[in-house]
Specification:
Oligomer: single chain
Structural class: alpha/beta
Distance between the termini: 49 Å
Shape: globular
Number of strands: 16
Helix content: 25-40%
Strand order of the largest sheet: 4-10-9-8-7-5-6
Largest sheet: 7 strands, mixed
Length: 582
């Protein structure tokens, strides 16, 4: 947020002023306006002096004979002030033109924590393949430099004088504190049943496609054009109609696409509608972006699924509704929407002119596909588009990591069928795009999925493994006093403990205790706000609480873990049960 001390603007008001690049003018502007955040660059004549400012992308060079940078020269011998951070993107790299990497340098822990949490809420986690790929390329680029050209100055070790920094907005701090983000291990071993990732072994077919994509050079545009493959994928799997006006947008991060969807909703002064029993990460992202949010109640009788009746009642008074639906497979419950159920939901949305976002990213791993029957929405959508409210439209959001049985390769897509939405979406820059190697591998794997045998046989085998996992986890939870909703698909399930409101003692970390005593403890009563911390601190098992799922009391467990970690997770449940009993 940008606000001035003199005006006392509300933190909900965002004021942006274009800043001069010349340092003396920038300093005068800062003195007079007292902004909360300053993002600035460096004029060329200042970049080669000892001046030190923030944005240095235009002057950062990876080459054998890099030019002199005043900022880097300053940083090599002087700690950064606590209120300053350095931003840099590798925009001048001429060796690998498709390399997209940026970094932030700060020596203030609060800034680094806030930035990392913000990225996790709005962007998610970078795929392992991309991290490894970019790491290798940066290493190669640095290898071009001639060593020992300049002596390295000795860096001062004293901490720079702390200055008072205007804090983050209270709304942002509230969202980041309440979002169930990654738990730091602090040297302890943790088992993550709280993340939407695939930790099972990657099939050899997928490995071969990834390796081939890295080995290939000078790939033709047709070899990395994934749009025909995505069109075929959404048609064969969901009966989703596309034509020449359909917009396809790609990213290497699903949450990044969803965040842009939320911004479109905010731009239109719409209202994001989440059913109880939704992806808690998406709800946190919508809150962080200050969207108007309506939580639609669901009930256990219907399996915490949306119904036509529930929607008719919930959307009566909602202004410009944007309805989020996870389907066919629902995250977090693992239940499925039938084709008929989805048609009824779309009918209810069409009557009020709602914009619908169907998130298919957790689908494709149905335990009993024949019994379920699949989706074919083409006829329903064609009928509603021609006879319904003109503002009604359906967008398809999808991720292919689970469908390709790979936690390393990430690819997300969004299909938009309304020109106004396509234009609005492209108003918001900053979308991380998949690398050409990812596109090549993805196109190859999607083609293999369309063929009989091979890739499909591998998928079916893993689905059987997941069904067995789900059954074992359900049995283990029930023995430990949990009421479990057995999933029909996917990699997650929800369960409600019978021991809510019981008290349990937790150990402080040394840092929290403050007195150096390892045995310092405190007591908490188990509820949605405390159960995640209690289980993690006593057993090392990380889960999502009812605050994340949106279903009071029901926690989420993901089970696409490595075999050894899955066994340890079951042991953790038994351990926590014994702690409760004692």
């Amino acid at each position: 947020m940008l606000q001035t001390a003199e005006t006392g603007l509300s933190e909900n008001v965002l004021t942006v002023i274009e800043a001069p690049r010349q340092s003396d003018l920038m300093i005068e502007l800062i003195k007079k306006l007292k902004p909360q955040v300053v993002v600035t660059g460096i004029a060329h004549f200042e970049a080669v002096t000892s001046s030190a400012f923030v944005q240095l992308s235009d002057h950062f060079e990876l080459s054998s004979l890099p030019g002199t940078s005043g900022v880097l020269k300053y940083l090599s011998g002087t700690p950064l002030p606590s209120h300053a951070a350095i931003l840099c993107g590798l925009v001048k790299n001429q060796v690998y033109s498709d390399l997209e990497v940026a970094f932030v340098i700060s020596e203030e822990e609060a800034i680094l924590k806030a930035l990392s949490k913000t990225v996790e809420v709005l962007e998610g986690n970078t795929s392992l393949i991309s991290q490894y790929y970019y790491g290798c390329l940066v290493h190669e680029l640095l290898a071009f430099q001639l060593t020992d050209r300049h002596p390295y100055p000795e860096r001062r070790s004293e901490k720079s004088k702390s200055v008072e920094v205007i804090g983050f907005s209270t709304s942002a701090v509230s969202v980041l504190n309440n979002a169930e983000l990654s738990i730091s291990d602090n040297g302890n071993f943790l088992i993550h049943m709280d993340v939407d990732q695939w930790f099972l072994p990657t099939p050899s077919t997928v490995k071969a496609a990834i390796f081939e994509s890295f080995a290939r050079q000078n790939m033709a545009e047709s070899e990395i054009d994934v749009t025909p493959s995505i069109k075929q994928f959404v048609k064969s799997n969901y009966g989703f109609p596309t034509d020449t006006s359909t917009g396809f947008i790609y990213s290497d991060c699903l949450q990044s696409l969803f965040s842009k969807v939320v911004l479109c909703c905010v731009h239109e002064s719409g209202t994001m509608c989440f059913p109880a029993g939704s992806n808690g990460n998406y709800v946190s992202a919508a809150k962080f972006l200050k969207a108007n949010i309506v939580n639609i109640p669901t009930n256990s009788k219907e399996g915490f699924k949306l119904t036509e009746e529930i929607l008719n009642k919930a959307l009566e008074t909602v202004k410009k509704p944007w309805v989020y639906i996870s389907g066919p497979t629902i995250n977090p419950t693992g239940f499925l929407y039938s084709n008929k159920e989805m048609e009824n939901i779309l009918n209810a949305c069409a009557r009020v002119g709602a914009r619908v976002v169907i998130d298919t990213s957790f689908s494709g791993l149905e335990f009993d596909f024949e019994g379920w029957g699949g989706w074919n929405l083409e006829g329903c959508l064609s009928k509603l588009s021609s006879s319904g409210n003109p503002s009604f439209c359906v967008s398809l959001l999808g991720g292919l990591s689970l469908k390709l049985l790979s936690g390393a390769l990430k690819f997300a897509f969004l299909t938009l069928n309304q020109p106004l939405l396509i234009d609005a979406f492209h108003r918001f820059p900053g979308l991380t795009k998949p690398h050409s190697t990812d596109k090549y591998a993805l196109k190859k794997l999607l083609a293999l999925r369309e063929q009989k045998g091979g890739m499909l046989d591998v998928v079916m085998e893993q689905i059987r493994n997941l069904e067995i996992r789900a059954k074992r986890l359900k049995e283990a939870l029930e023995k430990c006093g949990w009421d479990v909703l057995r999933p029909c698909a996917g990699v997650s399930m929800v369960a409600k403990p019978s021991f809510l409101d019981k008290a349990v003692k937790l150990s402080h970390s040394l840092k929290d205790a403050g007195n150096g005593e390892k045995d310092a403890t405190y007591e908490v009563k188990l509820n949605d706000a405390t159960i995640r911390e209690a289980i993690a601190k006593t057993t090392g098992l990380c889960i999502n609480s009812g605050s994340w799922t949106g279903i009071p009391g029901y926690c989420r467990f993901t089970f696409a873990l490595e075999d050894s970690e899955f066994e340890q997770a079951l042991a953790c449940l038994v351990k926590f049960k014994s702690i409760i009993d004692n």
